[in-house]
Amino acid sequence: MFKNAQVRSVSAAQDIPDVLQSWLYASGSLTAQLTQLSEGQFKVTPVKERFERQKREYNQWLNMPLHHTAWVREALLYGSESFPWVKATSIFPITSIQKRARIFKTLGNRPIGWFLFQRTSPVCERRILKLDEGWARQSHYRWHGCSFMVQEIFLVSFEEYLYRKQKKGL
Question: With respect to CATH, is domain 3-167 assigned 3.40.1410.10?
Answer without folding.
Answer: yes
